[in-house]
Amino acid sequence: MPSQDFSPLALLSVSDKTGLIPFAQALVQEHGFQLLSSGGTAKVLSEAGIPVTPVSTHTGAPEILGGRVKTLHPRIHGGILARLERSDDQEDLDALGIPPIGLVVVNFYPFEETVAQAGVLLAEATEQIDIGGPTLVRAAAKNYAHVTVLTDPAQYPQYLQLLSSTCGESERLAFRFQCARRAFEQVLAYDRAIVNYLARPELTQQLQPQSDPSPVQEDIFQLQGIPQQRLRYGENPHQAATWYVVDPAAPGWHQAKQLQGKELSYNNLLDLEAARAIVAEFGPEQAVAVVVKHNNPCGVALRPSLAAAFRAAFAADSVSAFGGIVGLNQTLDRETAHLLTEPFLECVVAPDCTLEAAELLSAKKNLRVLILPNWQVGPAQTIRTLAGGFLVQDADPPQGSDSQQSWRVVTERQPTPEEWAELEFAWKVCKHVKSNAIVIAKQGQTVGIGAGQMNRVGAVEIALKQARSEAAGAVLASDGFFPFADSVEVAAQSGIRAIIQPGGSIRDPDSIAAANAADIVMICTGIRHFLH
Ligand SMILES: NC(=O)c1ncn([C@@H]2O[C@H](COP(=O)(O)O)[C@@H](O)[C@H]2O)c1NC=O
Predict the structure, then answer these.
(1) How far apart, in whole angstroms, are the C-alpha atoms of residue 299 and residue 325?
(2) For 399-458, what is each residue's pLDDT tens digit?
(3) Where does 305-458 show beta strands of DSSP type E?
(4) What is the whole-number distance in angstroms between the Cα of residue 28 and the centre of ligand 1?
């Protein structure tokens, strides 16, 4: 019998008893182990004539709750987890008379096999979730410095071979470490099988009536970010802020190249993202420019050239555009750069920039100029915090299911092709204005925007006031339905000729009647775009 430099006490607790008897025999007869075992395992061993102490005898605590608690005892876990090189751990063991355990042999209740059978009830499957086994395995794996953990009968011969060999402690430690890693992998796979099973939709029906009638079915949401930049401050100077990136390899602002200008601020990043999202509503075929202020667009324009688009977007509300953030969807050229150098602007972002344009812009040292290659790619989900948690929702996608094909003309007059185009433009912009949102547009340019109002007619009035005489012959978009006919009536008085809105109010007929009375075209999209 080789001499031992580890505890010869082994705990065997296995559901799959394959190879158990010869292995246990070898442990006892050839290597001098004393065996501890849980009920069923102890029975098999003693029937085979192998000396074994039941865990319940060792702990003085009987197995209870029909086997739900067998090995969960400090006399077991203290013996497994003790760091034998530490005198304080040793003192604890001595004080309580706990012998260290050097080998733990466990395999789990066959959960996967159980749930693979047809017609297994949730209650039956739940009983097959092994608690004590993974606890033993995790404890032994954690203390790999002193304990060997075997989780598969296929490991038995290899372990016996190691015991018989003359190899040194470093090789034994390497073996224990490898077994520990394998053990944690098995625990992980076991838990994954449980999670997958519990996610089966049909299980909800099997829940007892006294259980929660609306259990949360979602998986745990894990949010992890890599710090990209400690920002100078947050929304206000007294708020600390950091910018995190979820996946450095995926498209996003971390891939933007800043050609010049001061460091990006928290508010710059928010406004840049708002500008990107608006620009992403439009394809690259036609030039689009947007000026964003406080996360709302104050001017958006669609034109054959980028310079013309910027000129129109800026002119849409040149008062608000002061200090704005500009988003462009085409390569920033010399002509556009020239226009950008005139007003005071905070940032400009474009998918690319010519050398000439970059040179011109360099005269405006403080203007932040960014090149964002994958500007169409936005987040798939959005996240907002609240006391005690956060909310996650799918992003409102650009050019999603909301298209002309699904829209309905609800008025007597049908839109002309030009009106269809104008309404589509206004609708796309309106989606990016804080609710209640109203956008008035004419010839591919916003002329009035009512943002973040607490009542819809108030937003209409603000937008009309800003549009002034331009409202005549313009189109109007509303992000939510009209609760009353008043918004349509006010719009009609200013000469609005077409309206796009989701529809869905019980008073839709009133709004439609008001539109018909004023010869206004109205489209109901069937989809709304609140933005809070
Ligand atoms: N509850 C406990 O304390 C506990 N301790 C060990 N087991 C598991 O019981 C099985 C062995 O039981 P038995 O020796 O009674 O056949 C093993 O799969 C082992 O992972 C337990 N069972 C379930 O959690």
Answers:
(1) 11
(2) 666 888 889 999 999 999 999 999 999 999 999 999 999 999 999 999 999 999 999 999
(3) 324-328, 345-350, 368-371, 381-386, 389-394, 408-409, 438-442, 445-450
(4) 22
Question: Is the torsion defined by CA of 467, 473, 478, 484 positive or negative?
Answer: positive
Digit-coded pLDDT (tens) for 289-335: 999 999 999 999 999 999 999 999 999 999 999 999 999 999 999 99
CA distance 415 to 413: 7
What angle separates helix 20-31 from helix 156-164, to the nearest 10 degrees? 10
Task: Compute the distance between CA of residue 335 and CA of residue 450 in angstroms, rounded to an integer.
Answer: 31
Q: Whose CA is nearest to atom 19 of ligand 1?
A: 133
512 SS3 class: helix
Structure tokens at 352: 């690319």
Reported ipTM: the value is 0.93
Q: 188 with 56, same domain? A: yes
Catalytic residue of the set 17, 142, 262, 338: 142
Residues flanking ligand 1, CB < 6 Å: 13-15, 38-41, 67-72, 106-109, 130-133
Distance of CA 108 from the midpoint of ligand 1 (Å):
7
In a domain, 97, yes or no: yes
Last residue of a domain, one of 345, 371, 397: 371
Q: 47 is in which domain, residue-wise?
A: 9-198
DSSP-assigned beta bridge partners for residue 445: 301, 442
